[in-house]
Design goal:
about 190 residues, alpha+beta, Metal Binding Protein, Guanine Nucleotide Exchange Factor, Chain A, six-stranded antiparallel beta sheet, 9 strands, about 10% helix, binds zinc ion
Length: about 190
């Protein structure tokens, strides 16, 4: 069924953009260079085939198959390719769609939105602003307060549990007394 989808995505050149930018050629701001880039060889080694397919070839994992769909631990979801923090667990909700869904992101600029006209639909594609990894899509049927639904592939994410605290939380040997208001718990 889905075989034909793959064929026309295997283009090595830049994706065809339908967007006319109205500016003199050469000054068009298409975000096709990302701050971080990785070679396909490296990513093939480092990522699972599904992670590679989703992030680099704009694939979609099967619904209810991703490892984070029903994941409820507290922590941070990062880009699986470059490690950029994208979503927090407290913004995750159960959308019933079969993919991890979030109603908000950590920083607006951490995700780049692009029009996606594939499959005869107009959707908004979400990509990592650091490395351009495909993440999923954004819909407007999410819960309040944002009304947004970031529908993200588990394969694009790497979960970092909250309770893995960085070491050295207790600085020692500080000169001068620290004020008594500092709490030693947490
Ligand atoms: Zn990334």
């Amino acid at each position: 069924m889905s075989g034909f989808n793959l064929l026309h995505l295997v283009t090595k050149s830049q994706p065809v953009k339908l967007k006319a930018c109205g500016l003199p050629s050469g000054t068009c701001h298409t975000k096709k260079t990302w701050p971080k880039s990785f070679s396909p060889e490296e990513l093939r080694k480092r990522l699972t085939p599904m992670q590679y397919h989703v992030t680099q070839e704009k694939g979609t994992e099967s619904a209810f198959r991703g490892e984070y769909t029903d994941h409820k631990e507290e922590g941070t979801y990062r880009c699986v390719v470059c490690g950029a923090p994208l979503f927090m667990s407290d913004k995750k909700f159960d959308s019933g769609s079969g993919w991890p869904s979030f109603f908000d992101l950590i920083k607006e600029e951490s995700i780049t939105l692009t029009d996606d006209f594939s499959y005869g639909m107009h959707r908004v594609e979400t990509s990592c602003s650091q490395c351009g990894a495909h993440l999923g899509h954004l819909f407007d049927d999410g819960p309040q307060p944002t009304g947004k639904r970031f529908c993200i592939n588990s394969a694009s994410l790497n979960f970092q549990p909250k309770n893995v605290a960085p070491e050295g939380a207790e600085p020692s040997g500080a000169t001068g007394q620290s004020s008594s208001s500092s709490k030693s718990e947490l």
